[in-house]
Design a protein that fits this description.
By secondary structure, the protein is an alpha/beta fold. Helices cover 55% and strands 15% of the residues. The protein folds into three domains: 19-53; 56-207, Pathogenesis-related Protein p14a (3-Layer(aba) Sandwich), CATH 3.40.33; 216-239 and 250-260. It has helices at 6-30, 35-54, 77-90, 100-116, 129-136, 155-163, 166-173, 213-242, 249-260; strands at residues 58-59, 64-65, 97-98, 140-149, 179-189, 192-204. A hairpin with a 2-residue loop joins strand 5 (179-189) and strand 6 (192-204). The radius of gyration is 27 Å and the shape is elongated. The model is unreliable at 1-11 and 21-56 (pLDDT under 50).
Length: 261
């Protein structure tokens, strides 16, 4: 299971930025009304589109169910992190760094699983990893979630079980992830005492590559052109609004000039 390529995410963001500039120019040029509010409305719609598209991908392999046997060793957040990073190091991947917001997501997921007695990535009310990330304020390019339920023989046994599952292994060894949140806890599930473990993986939006100098120069130039055009149209509109009388050859000429600007 592979995530959407980072290049695609980068192209999406900067294509949307350039398109927004070009379309704003078209909006201004064709409008004889309140173009400022139209610009703000379009920019907000573009930003929403980018965020919704980026948040559409979460890597969620089927949850791992273990056994309800006797517990030889308890699970710990620190141990799960250590064995996770040990496996990544063996595979030539950099360590994952704990992130407070991802940890908040993991804690919330753990509590919800026990409280609502379900074991899926999506809650009975339809809340998934992307929703948890939004609630925690974690802006991401890609996220993933590993779940495990059962009485494993300590942290290493738990991570080994995940590593034996292709989907969970792919999340643990994913080179794109930079951060992680972990939560483990013991409680009652389906009438039995057991442990549940949650891993929340993430690549934050701040890791998105910056635009090339060529792209940035083109965007800056287009924005300057917009500012110039907006000033010109504002002056023309003011002349039309202040015209008296609002009819006749001179008035119509002002309106025609405004409409073709």
């Amino acid at each position: 299971m592979e995530p959407v390529q980072s290049k695609k995410q980068t192209i999406l963001i900067w294509t949307a930025s350039v398109l927004s500039v070009l379309i704003i120019v078209a909006i201004i040029a064709s409008s004889q009304y309140d173009f400022t509010s139209k610009i703000k409305g379009f920019e907000q719609a573009t930003n929403n589109f980018i965020v919704q598209t980026l948040h559409s991908d979460a890597l969620t392999p089927p949850p791992l169910r273990g056994v309800f046997g006797e517990v030889a060793q308890p699970l710990t957040n620190e141990g799960v992190l250590a064995w996770t990073n040990k496996n990544r190091k063996t595979d030539g991947k950099p360590d994952l760094v704990l992130n407070d917001k991802l940890t908040e997501m993991a804690d919330q997921k753990l509590s919800d699983l026990f409280a609502k007695q379900y074991f899926e990535h999506q809650s009975p009310t339809g809340v998934g990893p992307g929703d948890l990330a939004q609630q925690a304020g974690y802006d991401y390019i890609v996220i993933g979630e590993n779940l495990a339920l059962g009485n494993f023989n300590g942290d290493k046994a738990l991570v080994d079980a995940w590593m034996a599952s292709p989907g969970h292994r792919a999340n643990i060894l994913n080179a794109r992830y930079q951060e992680i949140g972990i939560a483990v806890g013991k409680g009652t599930f389906e009438g039995k005492t057991t442990w549940i473990a949650v891993q929340e993986f993430g690549l934050p939006i701040t890791a998105c590559p910056q635009p090339s100098s060529v792209d940035k120069a083109a965007i800056d130039k287009a924005k300057k052109n917009i500012d110039t055009l907006e000033l010109s149209l504002s002056q023309q509109k003011a002349a039309i609004d202040n015209a008296n009388p609002k009819y006749g050859t001179d008035y119509n000429a002002k309106v025609d000039q405004y409409n073709i600007s």
